[in-house]
## 1
Amino acid sequence: MAFITISKVYTADPADFWTPKNAFMLTDPFAIVMNVQADSSLVDKGLLFDALFQIVGPEQDTANGFPWWVIVNGDIFLSPSRDVHWNGVSFQWGTDFGIWWFWNQYYDAIAHVGNAKQGIFYVQGTISVEGSDLFAASDRFWFKVRA
Amino acid sequence: MPHPRSGRVRTHAVELWRILALIQEGDGMSQTRKRSPIDEKLTLRQVRARVGEIKSVKPIEGKGSGSAVRSGKDSKPGAGKVQR
């Protein structure tokens, strides 16, 4: 039975992708890392996967909280996650590997998102194997940003 | 004839003015980027009240060549084998 799992998700300093880091200044380099374990049959068959990295603002209370928002054409929209898609990736690193997405500073990732500049947020992600029923979803990893 | 202490007072006033200007520039966070309403923590009611002064902000996104989709300024994907 083929399988795929995301054993860990975390934020990190791009200078050291293998060490989780959970507190950043707004202008600190920032990365989302997912550790992935896959059955060797997926590698052997040459399958591809689609990865989704998400930064999530957990506050949803529109009356009392500070939910994430964006402005599009003058209208305000709630936008509780910043999503990055990396599609059509091959299993070129074997059965036990990490994938990441990084920015030179956290600010660059959420420059357009209100209420995302300081606070306690989390990252999560999914992996979907193309052309199959297989997928994996990560846990959450919380981190703090200060301005 | 100026009061002997007035020059010092004026110097302090100028320094205070500079400090205030720096704070308004960006909270001391970045002297090159002005702090905008979108950088502040705002309730939705405050956002709606100020929406006229907040310019429409488009997500920073763009696609690159190859399989690596770029999204965000200076954002990059990458991967490697897990180090045990």
Note: Confidence is low (pLDDT under 50) at residues 1-11, 23-31, 61-73 of chain B.
## 2
Amino acid sequence: MTVDALVVGAGPAGLAAATALKLGGTGTVLVVDREEEAGGIPRLCEHTGFGLRDLRRVLSGPEYARRWVERAVACGVEIRTRTMVTGWSAPGRAEMTGPSGVLEIDARTIVLATGARERPRAARLVPGTRPSGIFTTGQLQQWVHREHLPVGRRAVVVGAEHVSYSAVMTLRHAGVHPVALVTDLPRPQSYRLFDLLVRVGLRVPVWTRTSVAGVYGRDRVDEVLVRGPDGDERSVAVDTVVFTGDFIPDNELARLAGLSIDPGTRGPACAAGGATTAPGIFAAGNLVHPAETADVAARRALSVGRAAATWLRQGGDRTMPGATERVRVADPLHWVVPNMVDPARAGDESVLIRSRVFLDHPHVVMTQGHRLLASYRLRHMIPNRSHHIPSDWWGRLRPGQDVLISVSPRPGG
Amino acid sequence: MTDDHTYDVVIIGAGVVGTAIGRQLARYRLRTVMLDRCTDVGMGTSKANTAILHTGFDTRPGSLESALVRRGHELLTAYAGRAGIALEKTGAVLVAWDAEQAVRLDDVVTKSKANGYLRAHRITLEELYRREPALGGGATGAVVIPDESIICPWSTSIAYATEAVGAGVELRLGVEVTAVTRDADAWLLRTTSGSLRSDWVVNAAGLGSDLLNHQFGHDEFTVAPRRGQLIVFDKMARPLLSSILLPVPTERTKGVLVAPTVYGNVLLGPTAEDVPDRQDTATTAVGIHGLFDAARRILPDLINEEVTATYAGLRAATEHPDYQITTHDREHYACVGGIRSTGLTASLAIAEHVVDGMGAGGLSLAEADHEPAVPHMPQLAERATRAFEDTRMIEDDPAYGHIICFCERVTEGEVRDALRAPVPAVDLGGVRRRTRATNGRCQGFFCGAAVAAQFASG
């Protein structure tokens, strides 16, 4: 079977990219997803707050997911669920398993939109035993909202970024008492409103500068050891721990396709419009920027779909070199997207940057060797949140040398 | 006296050794039962080890362990092929990292020959780095052991138990022996689920084998649990190595190794820590960081990969440098203790040895009418054609075309099979060990709830 475009992943980004591909005049656009239903992670987020930046309305997660599915189907996108791409048998040829068995699909262009997952306990190297009662937010939401399984009584939530507050809401919905949010950073990283709702409204404290030093229990979690700002460890009696945030792209298919991986995001290195180091393979959504809210992912994926459609219209030549100038970040910056530069697209889309630490009034500086390309002053930077800077400096690039982005906080800032 | 609770042989402990003995006894006309206090087979040392099928090249020459490991390697290699237990003959390279270790490599080869394993040989540094290009710089010498292999530890115990149960051996899990007495003609075991009588008792209680041995009035050895912490790295790390990378062993320990797993991951470990608590399988910050330090030297690129899991197991070390296997003929009691880190490899040979000993000690070994049938275990090997990629299987049963655990590519059909198997999964851990479901990099982020729900609904 042959299609013009294969999109892997039917979350907001994959559906948006597919929609834009179709609207851009692409013939057959097939979206495959390994889940039971299309719609991605928002399907599992029962709370409101979706759709502000792309659909211009406020919806619950499931409603939001349904809108994107309807929109894609309405413009002629074919969606197959329960179908998982398991590898590539040749460039542009995807191997997959689905209800009808094992099949291969040739695609003239491919958009990877495989999303991101939260780092689980083991990947964070938290010592202790391996009892039941340890979750990530993603697992917790499916546990509660999809399978309606019992969770526990008292929980510690590890993390204090957007998704951590989502975990608190899910715990409350399941009748679990959230004892505290724990973050090793000096402040929570989500919106102040969420923080007030949880701390003041629900009386759930946020323990800052605090890390999880161990999780213990025989069959079920019975104790979490936390280490506070002064280094003292204390035991918290809970039966549930939710590890939230700390997103990592689901990059297996990107790596199997031989795409260059960005050391900051750990997703495929991408230029504007989602072009990867392999011509004809594009990447969109939280695979590229782990993790933005659904609306940001969908909006940026529209531009990826358009870029893929344009590439097809221009002949879809796989032998053409892709973008090569890399953009790297210096400590304490975490990552930048796009992390490759296409000078022809200067100013087309904003650049997202993240810091690992809180910064007040940081001076963000783009340099190529000793040459200053641009600098911007931001009001602040918050870890686990993206900050937008313009991309017009891409036009001032000289070929053949990487770009470095660094920050210098204002003295005393 | 014959009633429902009278046996010819009771095996206490259904780890890899206990189930191997159960399987061996299944070929005779005996009423045998395997007991374990855990709710699944292979739950102690058997499940949390380095999953290596050893040649025995570095055992103590002349020891019982040396003989049984060599024989066990041969038997289990053949059995794994018949039962469909994942096994890969990757070979091992033992790498020296300084001048002093390099000097000892010739001793390694000599010792290997003394153990009856003749294929270990030195290779040049050039050959070493050609074979393992990602190996850290600074190696000073190496020995290749071509037949060291990796194996699925979970399927091994489950296969033995399945074969035994299929041939009529009983398996009673979640049952703990609380008291042992003897009358004129049988042992009387009181358990947490009733009493039973038996002509013979086999102690295969692993970490608890010395305490049980005391109950039978013997004290040849004391178990000093040695904890081994291990780190499993993401499958993306698998191309970094082709063989098992071993350090030069010391008197105390075989040291930290890096090995591929049959599931396509990379394993780093183990630590070797004497711990007082026989149930202390917690990982520690010190242990994990120590392993990372070792990896920095052995395979530096490894530490940039994601960690999929960390765990710890306990080896049943004793004060003796060899297995502690004794058959007390007059008492009809066999004790199989001190099976250290080589029990998985030696299991089938240990079973042969123990059952031969019991036969010599008076147990009647009349052959049963039918030879036990070797079971076909679910295909867990990354290298093999697994259910999700098997067109014929999916055509016959579409449940094998429905992947529910994405990272490990486990299908609904395989989870269902695990719940209905002759030795079925009784909890989520059991599903994990029989199918690989939720064992992957997301640790349940995507599939944990779906697998739990399928488990809950049977």
Note: The two ends of chain B are 39 Å apart (CA to CA).
